């Protein structure tokens, strides 16, 4: 890899790293279930951006396009199931705060 | 009518797969089959490791189906369960047979989403909370693995195993590649439930219905975790000293802390879940030493653990269905009321603890021998110590649940239903049979698995 390509990669890489940090912050340090889901979305977006950048640098745009579309489909399925679980939790506890629903111990 | 037929159809499918995995000749599986020609690359390949996994998958899924028939109430629920099981079968078979990292990732997601729904199947507070925890950790694992795949794509330009491997050969000590391998392994450790990343496993196992616990512990963590680690390291990453070091360290930590966690539990299914973490540690440790013998031992232990842990979860389900509780301190003397459950659980525990004629002894022996022969004496001693701890927690479980004084509350309970007994007898027969036929299996089935590396 030449230094030109590497510089291109890192200029996008900064955004990817920022997105990941925000996402991890949302997932592990907030108390709202919906915010956890938003954090997971941000993380998946960071991974998607990484894949697009890789395809652009590599010249394999066609391959990456199909991979990105597959990833979006997977993301939609996972998030649908996740929102279903969150709705179930909400209808039982009448709250979205993680601190109220820590029943499992050990 | 349709809904009853689905059950038998699924059972026939699972048994058919087991038959293919055992009896089909290596030549029939040997060549890769490209499904949609050259336009949509979808290469499948089956070697002896995949065949062992296919056998494991079909066996555990059919046991889970049998248990689910009695354990899950309501026709509609059972029908959903059978359908989810079939989706899970397709996902797992895909993981086992694929030769492309991206397809591997897609099939892993299919399996993960299915098991997510299965954990939340009871829809009570505990199940939903466990499913949420599992969901967060498995999506994080997914993202780690996906980023690693993207970085590997940057280096190689394709996602096929052989092309990525060839690209990695030329640039081995690049920082990006080391980073990619590291986060890929982290994601797989989360999926396998190994010790620093284990938080989801005990909750999910104890909150799910019994049939699903069998599935999760018996085959899901193995296919998504152990098998994928073995496959990726043998056919892509290759053994480097840092990979060996990470695998052995994580394996040892899992063995010791999983066993200690199991000793401290009161809940029957939670204790079995911690025991699963400990046994996954054995598999990774045996594989991590990097010799043919170690790999054969790891795969054999994987098979044995699938059998005896399914049997123990089955016993837990039988006890729970009769007594209605899972707290081990409140039970006692159940062996006199439920003799079949008692006998099979003794067999399974002894196999898990490594008592000579049973199957679990041979696999632990091979792993410890492989470690000793590869020069890792310290790790071998830790593995032996872990084995003693295993014996301790299984004996404690037996004493608290099946022997000792019978609680008056349970004086009139009966043996569990026919489905449970049938499945328990089948699994106990497999444990004893494999243990006794071990010398026969060693040369014909096990050592060829170890030969995957190199050749």
Please outline the helices and strands.
The complex is a heterodimer of chains A (106) and B (455).
Chain A: H1 3-29, H2 33-58, H3 61-93
Helix pairs in contact in A: 1-2, 2-3
Chain B: H1 2-23, H2 26-30, E1 33-36, E2 40-44, H3 48-71, H4 75-97, H5 101-119, H6 125-156, H7 161-170, H8 175-192, H9 200-207, H10 210-237, H11 241-263, H12 268-288, H13 292-323, H14 334-337, H15 339-353, H16 359-373, H17 377-401, H18 418-436, H19 438-450
Antiparallel strand pairs in B: 1-2
Word description of this protein:
The complex is a heterodimer of chains A (106) and B (455). With 106 residues, chain A is an all-alpha fold. Chain A is built from three helices and no strands. The relative contact order of chain A is 0.12. By secondary structure, chain B is mainly alpha-helical. Helix content of chain B is 78%, strand content 2%. Chain B is built from 19 helices and two strands. Chain B has helices at 2-23, 26-30, 48-71, 75-97, 101-119, 125-156, 161-170, 175-192, 200-207, 210-237, 241-263, 268-288, 292-323, 334-337, 339-353, 359-373, 377-401, 418-436, 438-450; strands at residues 33-36, 40-44. Chain B has a two-stranded antiparallel sheet with strand order 1-2. In chain B, strand 1 (33-36) and strand 2 (40-44) form a beta hairpin. The A-B interface holds A 9, 27, 33, 36, 40, 43-44, 46-47, 50-51, 54-55, 57-58, 60, 63-64, 67, 70-71, 74, 77-78, 81-82, 84-86, 88-89, 92-93, 101-104, 106 and B 102, 106, 109, 112-113, 116-117, 120, 123, 125-126, 128-133, 135-136, 139-140, 142-143, 146-147, 150-151, 153-154, 157-159, 202-203, 207, 265, 267, 270.
């Amino acid at each position: 890899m030449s230094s030109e390509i590497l510089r291109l990669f890192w200029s996008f890489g900064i955004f990817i790293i920022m997105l990941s940090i925000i996402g991890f912050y949302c997932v592990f340090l907030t108390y709202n279930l919906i915010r956890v889901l938003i954090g997971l979305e941000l993380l998946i977006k960071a991974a998607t951006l990484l894949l697009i950048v890789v395809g652009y640098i590599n010249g394999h745009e066609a391959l990456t396009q199909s991979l990105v579309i597959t990833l979006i489909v997977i993301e939609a399925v996972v998030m649908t199931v996740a929102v279903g679980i969150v709705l179930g939790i909400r209808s039982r506890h009448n709250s979205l705060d993680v601190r109220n629903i820590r029943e499992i111990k050990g | 009518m349709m809904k009853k037929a689905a059950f038998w159809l699924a059972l026939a499918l699972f048994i058919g797969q087991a038959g293919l995995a055992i009896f089909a000749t290596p030549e029939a599986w040997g060549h890769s089959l490209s499904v949609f020609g050259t336009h949509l690359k979808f290469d499948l390949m089956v070697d002896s490791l995949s065949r062992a996994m296919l056998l494991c998958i079909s066996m555990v899924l059919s046991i889970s189906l049998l248990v689910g028939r009695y354990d899950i109430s309501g026709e509609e629920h059972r029908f959903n369960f059978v359908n989810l099981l079939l989706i899970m079968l397709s996902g797992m078979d895909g993981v086992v047979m694929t030769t492309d990292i991206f397809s591997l990732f897609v099939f892993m997601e299919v399996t993960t989403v299915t098991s997510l729904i299965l954990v939340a199947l009871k829809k009570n507070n505990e199940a939903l909370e466990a499913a949420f925890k599992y969901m967060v950790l498995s999506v994080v694992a997914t993202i780690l693995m996906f980023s690693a795949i993207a970085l590997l794509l940057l280096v190689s330009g394709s996602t096929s195993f052989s092309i990525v491997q060839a690209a990695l050969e030329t640039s081995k000590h690049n920082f990006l590649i080391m980073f990619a391998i590291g986060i890929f392994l982290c994601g797989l450790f989360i999926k396998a439930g190994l010790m620093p990343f284990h938080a989801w496993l005990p909750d999910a196992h104890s909150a799910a219905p019994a049939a699903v616990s069998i599935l999760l512990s018996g085959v899901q963590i193995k296919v998504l975790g152990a098998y994928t680690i073995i496959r990726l390291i043998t056919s892509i990453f290759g053994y480097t000293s840092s990979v060996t070091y990470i695998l052995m360290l994580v394996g040892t930590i899992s063995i010791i802390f999983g066993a200690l966690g199991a000793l401290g539990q009161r809940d029957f299914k939670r204790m079995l879940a911690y025991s699963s973490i400990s046994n996954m540690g054995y598999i990774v440790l045996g594989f991590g030493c990097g010799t043919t013998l170690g790999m054969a031992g790891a795969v054999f232990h994987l098979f044995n653990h699938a059998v005896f842990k399914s049997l123990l979860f089955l016993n837990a389900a039988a006890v729970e269905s009769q007594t209605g509780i899972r707290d081990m301190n409140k039970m006692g003397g159940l062996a006199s009321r439920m003799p079949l459950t008692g006998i099979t659980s003794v067999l399974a525990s002894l196999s898990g603890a490594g008592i000579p004629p049973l199957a679990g002894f041979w696999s632990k022996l091979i792993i410890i021998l492989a470690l000793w022969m590869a020069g890792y004496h310290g790790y071998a001693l830790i593995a032996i110590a872990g084995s003693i701890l295993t014996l301790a927690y299984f004996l404690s479980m037996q004493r608290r649940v099946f022997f000792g004084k019978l609680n008056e509350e349970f004086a009139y309970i009966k043996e569990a239903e026919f489905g449970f007994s049938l499945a328990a007898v089948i699994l106990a027969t497999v444990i004893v049979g494999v243990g006794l036929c071990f010398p026969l299996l060693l040369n014909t089935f096990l050592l060829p698995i170890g030969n995957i590396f190199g050749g």
